[in-house]
Design a protein that fits this description.
The protein has about 600 residues and is an alpha+beta fold. It has helices at about 10-20, 20-25, 35-55, 60-65, 80-90, 110-145, 145-160, 285-320, 345-380, 380-415, 430-440, 445-460, 465-480, 485-515, 515-550, 555-570, 575-580, 585-590; strands at about 65-70, 75, 160-165, 180-185, 190-200, 210-215, 230-235, 235-240, 245-250, 250-255, 265-280. The two termini are about 45 Å apart.
């Protein structure tokens, strides 16, 4: 079904020409020996694994789905998933960016990030199994006790065991302060946890020997709301001191959800009946510890959106070049055929270029954020670490929401390229649309991300983080403002930067008087900021492409054309979005609920 070829050329462009990753890593003692050859080699091997092992299982896994045995509470993944996971583990992929102290390879997150793009393009449902494990690793690495780290991290790093995050409950949704799961302390320092969790991706499966569940629950007498939540490590099998598997813990799958997409992943209802667990990060500090996992997951979901955008684009492009239908409006283009390939038609090109631009913009953006994470964690200068941390905090909700919104648009446009065939399962395109839809919902809906950006990341510090990022944009504008060849990119970028500053101030003043104003403006505001970020990166990429467009390498001609399309056709959305954000809450809140 279809094809997937890792976009290595564009990944290398982003790494080496746009972000100068090798030079950046030389400033980090931990990664100073990483050079372009190592980066390219890892990317090439990753491309082979994902296209040859994971991609062939995507369509079949979607059609088969997971199977739940109610009597034994076991879940069987689609044919080939378990075997692919074994190959993944044997090749050492789980340990790519993990701490060498626990068996990891210690490579930069920016490299791991690109590998995850390939995995998500190849098979998002499969990728969620190891993806959640990596989040569990990050959480335990940051907040686990030395004893927990010694026992559990080597198993997660090797891939022998996998992980999950058990957050919400049927009555909660995003409001985790309402959760009811309870944890009773035991004399030996453990806890007995009782409750039910829903929407637990990879909650039960047959791919690994053990599953480590990170579960939110309340201690006796805990404060109401989110301040009374604690985090617990609850293994499927209780490990012995030597790491071997012991007794089965009473945390079981009661059912798997029947979903719109990601059928190859087991989205479980998990029941805890006095399951044994151990606290992580201290009493009533569960959300603080879990946010490490959640932020990793939010970045990961952005990568899912990018992965689906890329693979949908690749297949729609092949189809558009092959499918013949009607003649070009400007004259016959394929006289040897009864009709022209549909790629000659302007609107087909619009759809393809929309997906292409959203994929390339997201790739630059995600790689940049991953590099900032590497700097936050490893740079020897505290001030640099602080600046990088501020950028990661500011941009994480934009990665999650903007990229997944765009993926929904891009996959739908790519399905449209196929016409009626796109709606038919055998072509594979409709799966990408279905799979893309969940990415806008889980790990905090995109509205939640928008509220987080505007409320917590911008207004709460009077725009300090946004101003720091804006200063980078402004420096680029000033550096290139006199270059006439760059004016078509610099002028709209500067204009949007000025408008974002004014819009932020206006919303802040209105929200001070009425908090609903922030809620009404948040979603269009995030998209405006997302476009500012993309315009910044596309302007940088255009500068590189302008200098090399006559080199004979058609890659730069394509890159420049894509940047021009983005500025001409996608960036103008901001005019509408700014008007929406400025329109206020009155039209949303005036109608009484019983009049809807």
């Amino acid at each position: 079904m279809g094809q997937y070829v890792a976009p290595l050329r564009d990944m290398q462009f982003v790494m080496h020409e746009l972000l100068h990753v090798e030079d950046e890593l030389k400033q980090l003692p931990k990664h100073a020996d990483i050079d372009a050859d190592i980066i390219n080699q890892v990317l090439e091997e990753g491309g082979k694994f994902t296209s040859e092992v994971l991609f062939p299982l995507n369509h079949s896994g979607d059609r088969e789905g997971c199977h739940h045995d109610k009597a034994t509470h076991t879940v069987t993944t689609p044919k080939g998933f378990k075997e692919a996971y074994k190959q993944y583990v044997e090749a050492g992929w789980p340990s790519l960016s993990c701490d060498p102290e626990f068996g990891g390879q210690g490579l930069p997150l920016v490299m791991n990030n690109s590998f995850y793009e390939m995995m998500n393009s190849s098979n998002q449902a499969w990728t969620m199994y190891p993806g959640l494990s990596h989040g569990a690793y990050e959480c335990l690495h940051a907040h686990g006790t030395p004893e927990q780290q010694a026992l559990y991290l080597p198993k997660l790093v090797s891939g022998e065991w996998t992980g999950t995050m058990c957050l919400t409950e049927a009555h909660c949704g995003t409001d985790l302060g309402m959760l009811r799961s309870k944890a009773e302390p035991q004399d030996d320092g453990s806890y007995k946890i009782t409750g039910s969790k829903i929407f637990i991706s990879a909650g039960e499966h047959d791919m690994s020997a053990n599953i480590l569940h990170l579960v939110l629950a309340r201690l006796p007498g805990a404060p109401e709301g989110s301040k009374g939540i604690s985090l617990f490590l609850v293994p499927k099998f209780l490990p012995n001191a030597d790491g071997s598997l012991g007794a089965r813990n009473p945390i079981t799958c009661g059912a798997i959800e029947e979903k719109m997409g990601i059928h190859g992943n087991s989205t479980c209802q998990m029941n805890l009946d006095g399951a044994t667990g151990w606290i992580i990060g201290g009493a009533h500090k569960g959300l603080n510890a879990m946010f490490v996992f959640m932020n990793a997951a939010r970045l990961g979901v952005g990568m899912q959106g990018l992965g689906l955008t890329e693979v949908a684009y690749q297949n729609a492009l092949v189809y558009a070049k092959d499918r013949i239908q009607m003649r070009s409006l400007s004259g016959i283009k394929a006289p040897d055929k009864p009709a022209d390939p549909i790629i000659v038609h302007p609107d087909v090109r619009r759809m393809l270029l929309t997906a292409k631009a959203y994929a390339e913009g997201a790739r630059a953006f995600c790689s940049y954020v991953a590099l900032q994470l590497d700097k936050e964690l490893n740079h020897p200068d505290e001030a640099v670490r602080k600046d990088a941390a501020d950028e990661v905090a500011l941009l994480t909700p934009v990665v999650k929401a903007f990229i997944t919104d765009n993926a929904w648009t891009a996959t739908s446009e790519c399905m449209q390229v196929y016409g009626g065939h796109g709606f038919i399962a055998e072509w594979g395109m409709e799966q990408y649309v279905r799979d893309a839809r969940i990415n806008m919902i889980y790990e905090g809906t995109n509205t939640i991300q928008s509220l987080d950006l505007l409320g917590r990341k911008v207004l709460m510090d009077n725009g300090a983080k946004l101003k720091k990022f804006g200063a980078k944009v402004q420096a680029f504008i000033e550096e290139n403002g006199a270059d006439e060849a760059m004016s078509e990119f610099i002028t709209p970028l500067a204009d949007l930067g000025d408008k974002v500053s004014k819009l932020t101030m206006e919303i802040g003043m209105k929200a001070f008087q009425n908090p609903d104003e922030a809620g009404a403006a948040a979603v269009p505001y995030l998209r405006v900021v997302g476009h500012l970020v993309y315009a910044y990166f596309f302007a940088q990429m255009a500068k590189i492409a302008l200098a090399k467009q006559d080199s004979g390498d058609k890659f730069y001609v394509s890159k420049l054309a894509t940047a021009r399309f983005y500025f001409a056709r996608l960036l103008p959305e901001t005019a509408m979005l700014i008007r929406q954000a400025r329109s206020g809450s009155a039209s949303l809140m005036a109608l009484d609920a019983d009049l809807f």
